[in-house]
Amino acid sequence: MARVVTRQHKVIATIAAWLVAFLIFFPILYTIITSLKTEPEAIAGFSLIPSGTFENYITVQTRNDYIRPFMNSVILAVGSTILALIIAIPAAWAMAFSPTKRTKDVLMWMLSTKMMPAVAVLVPIYLMFRDFGLLDTHIGLTVMLTLINLPIVVWMLYTYFREIPGEILEAARMDGAGLWQEIVYVLTPMAVPGIASTLLLNIILAWNESFWTIRLTTTTAAPLTAFIASFSSPQGLFWAKLSAASTMAIAPILILGWFSQKQLVRGLTFGAVK
Amino acid sequence: MTLKTILLGACSALVLSGPVLAETLTIATVNNGDMIRMQGLTEDFTAKNPDIQIEWVTLEENVLRERVTTDIATGGGQYDILTIGNYEVPIWAKQGWLAELNALGDGYDVDDLLPAIRGGLSVDGKLYAAPFYGESAMIMYRTDLFEKAGLKMPESPTWEFIADAARKITDRNADINGICLRGKAGWGENMAFVTALNNSFGGRWFDENWQPQFDQPEWKEALQFYVDLMKDAGPAGASSNGFNENLTLFQQGKCGMWMDATVAASFVSNPKDSTVADKVGYALFPSKEGVDNHGHWLWSWNLAIPASSKNAEAAQKFIAWATSKEYTELVASKEGWANVPPGTRTSLYENEEYKKAAPFAEPTLAAMQAADITKPSVKPVPYTGGQFVAIPEFQAIGTNVGQLFSAVVAGQSSVDDALAQAQSATVREMTRAGYIK
Amino acid sequence: MATQNTRALARFMMAPSVILLLVWMIVPLSMTLWFSFQNYNLLNPGNVSFAGLFNYQYFYSDPAFFQSIWNTLVIVGGVLLITVIGGIGIALLLDQPIFGQGIVRILVISPFFVMPPVAALVWKNMIMHPSYGVFADISRLFGFRPVDWFAQYPLLSIVIIVAWQWLPFATLILLTALQSLDSEQKEAAEMDGASAFSRFIYLTLPHLARAITVVILIQTIFLLGVYAEILVTTNGGPGYASTNLAFLIYRTALLGYDVGGASAGGIIAVILANIVAIFLMRAVGKNLDR
């Protein structure tokens, strides 16, 4: 009897969950479908069955080479993430294992640096970048993205490190482990999942940053956000081409997200679970 | 062994390609059809100039404008060639931001450029940008729908006739709107049309003392006319329609009439994209009964070189190529005469092949010749510019006012409120900028 | 001795982050502050002069100023409301045993990977477009006149788009929190005959308090600066109906090229953001201390 109820329950929950998931995913799905339609088809009314043409992708590729912006996105996202991790890990570590009264204030302050509207500082930053010769360079933009995301990275790592029980550290110390050994052999293995999910989240944030990546680049360092900016509202019919360009811009990070979903989910708690 | 060969080959290739010092030109351009075509034809230029490489930065118009403006105003030096409008050229040239174009080559034939266009790109007789394509505004209408309604488009129609015809043609059940006009907010979107409309109603933006004129009867009449017409005969969602949206609507056969840039003619008459290609007629931009003014719309997209560019010489070579008669012929040979960039050279309009392929050639030329940006209104004005006011502040003011007017078309504000708000907002900006003491 | 050592070490380890962020805060902030007292228009760079407080007064007296603050709050509040309530709902659903849980979860979190301009473009052109959008197709199917979303409900449209982007984030955090709820506790409550509703109110919701706080805190910081979605879709209009503070600054900076005015706007925005932050910390911050 009980089993029947559970089964019924599961079926209903499954249907509801799939429905919700479908609705949420629909705009992305429809974009992918539209990218496989011809232009007249794309505006001919609702249809989930495209004629399956790859013409749009070819058109987009011949107009704007995809490879370079894609590589730039990878370089910027990965580079800024690694840089942020190198800077943030020691800080989060210190905050988690020798917290002071002000630790939380420091965290909040770090977060508050994100409150300055980017547009308001565009001209000052542009002038600085010009003077240091950083315009349209990978290094300039990498540093920029690192700074933007550093607060989030510190916070995420901090909440993760904090959950590592202090007793383990003490036990290691009793065994005569030095600080270095403590870090390498005891803490790092325990922290890897947290670091991994922080890394993932930060790659996503850096990949999707679309103010500075457009304003501070021209060609050499321009990533996919700039690529997509050349496809919004050109003349004539553009729905299918826009869909193809959009799909190309989001596909890499979407696929990465799908494959690393478990990792990402595990770490994305921001200390919410205690 | 094969690996060795490949490696050796690769090395020698590197060595060989080393000594050729190629200059790289970074060109910023808009993602409009004609520019994308130019991008596609780059090879023709690089084949003739093997020592020059081209890097394209293609962006959507608004993003491009803010990128390019920030860069040139701060001296960022990111670009060698800019695609800018005839709005920016004189303003920037006066700031000393643009390099004079004085080495376009012997075959360039500067005197062939349409006088109205050339005048807008020159300061003190020096040319600061070369026109890539130019446009005025005219009426594009559906001959079949006019016939069906028993109407005949006069050569120089009045707004009264247009309003009447638009309401007659409108057939909501068949999804046919009598008239499609821009409603999307922006100084280059709805304000381009509304400013031209206001010109043709006898109004002006500013009086001789730079006092905004939104409190004058001409503006009220023009705006009321526009809003009523859009309500009765315009498409749904008109307040978000710009040039591109209206183009799509017209191509899909959903508009009876469309008053917009003359470049649209080659798109609506192109059977590849347009379902109504063989049913399009053209006429002069309307005027109000008793007012001798057809809006004075004049726009060109131009190529210019920032004063800071280190590759100015190569850049002039490219500009000369892209705006030459030979480029026009190149496009004609690949895409047909109807698709060449229009509105820059007199010779094009004397070309029989072009006239045959492009039924819109004559009305376009007529519209462009009628446009006089030095005298946009029948009343005296302190500014130049047809569908815009050629002062640096206009981008902000025009967009602000455009938002207010867009809200009226969306039915969220009234004509009187919008005009009052436009007046006070414009007075505020003009006072700040020092025009009004 | 040892503790002192540790403290010094801790400070040393924190130094790079703190110094970098300090520089990153102070340099732009002081430059912005400096420019906010200057008459500096990018299009007229030869004409720079001291402006005193004029830029502040000018920005404050912008006809869109008060509406933009209100719109900012509506966007933040609206998105938070949708994402928190929707997030709890979806998290509860995903916490049930269902077939294909992994795939469902992948689909639900996908919007988070979409860059804001793309999200806005997709919603504008594929979904909400009054002629070619899916919503318009649906209304026509039922014989209604399609809604012109961005003209009739501009702010709501923005909220929907932004909420769609942030819903996965909220769902994920809430789901993780939900899964950490002791199943013994749940079972015990069930045994006691507590209804599903009262179990949710007295057991689940308090357990989620901390997660909700985190969602609110982090999202608020991002949502205060929403502007790409507005730029792509409504451009702040019609009128000022969808102009928020970030967009007003954008308009001042990149349409008027008024660097002084935009800087003053930036300073005002920072002050307002801090007020919101203090208010938030008062209201929900104590949940973080547990």
Question: Can you tell me about this structure?
Answer:
The complex is a heterotrimer of chains A (274), B (437) and C (290). Chain A has 274 residues and is mainly α. Chain A contains 13 helices and no strands. Chain B is of the alpha/beta class. Chain B has two domains: 21-135 and 299-357, D-Maltodextrin-Binding Protein, domain 2 (3-Layer(aba) Sandwich), CATH 3.40.190; 137-297 and 373-432, D-Maltodextrin-Binding Protein, domain 2 (3-Layer(aba) Sandwich). Helices cover 44% and strands 14% of the residues of chain B. The longest helix of chain B is centred in the C-terminal third of the chain and has 18 residues, at 415-432. Chain C has a domain at 65-242: Orthogonal Bundle (MetI-like fold). Chain C has helices at residues 2-36, 54-60, 65-95, 101-109, 116-127, 134-141, 149-152, 154-179, 183-191, 196-223, 228-233, 245-254, 259-284, and strands at 38-39, 49-50. A two-stranded antiparallel sheet of chain C has the order 1-2. The longest helix of chain C is centred in the first third of the chain and has 35 residues, at 2-36. Chain C is globular, with a radius of gyration of 24 Å. At the A-C interface, helix 1, helix 4, helix 5, helix 6 and helix 7 of A face helix 1, helix 3, helix 4, helix 5 and helix 6 of C.
β-sheet strand percentage of chain B: 5-15%
Overall residue-averaged pLDDT value of chain A: 85
Q: What percent of residues of chain A are in strands?
A: under 5%
Strand order of the largest sheet of chain B: 2-1-3-11-6
- Helix and strand sequence of chain A: HHHHHHHHHHHHH
Gyration radius of chain A, to the nearest Å? 23 Å
Largest sheet, strands/sense/barrel of chain B: 5 strands, mixed
Tell me the domain tally of chain B: 2
Task: Give me the secondary-structure category of chain B.
Answer: alpha/beta
Structural class of chain A: mainly alpha
CATH class of the largest domain in chain A: Mainly Alpha
Q: Which consecutive residue ranges of chain A, at least 5 long each, have pLDDT under 50?
A: none
Cα radius of gyration of chain B in angstroms? 23 Å
Low-confidence stretches of chain B at least 5 residues in length (pLDDT < 50)? 1-19
Total individual domains of chain A: 2
Name the CATH architecture of the largest domain in chain A.
Orthogonal Bundle
Global outline of chain B: globular
The total strand number of chain A stands at: 0
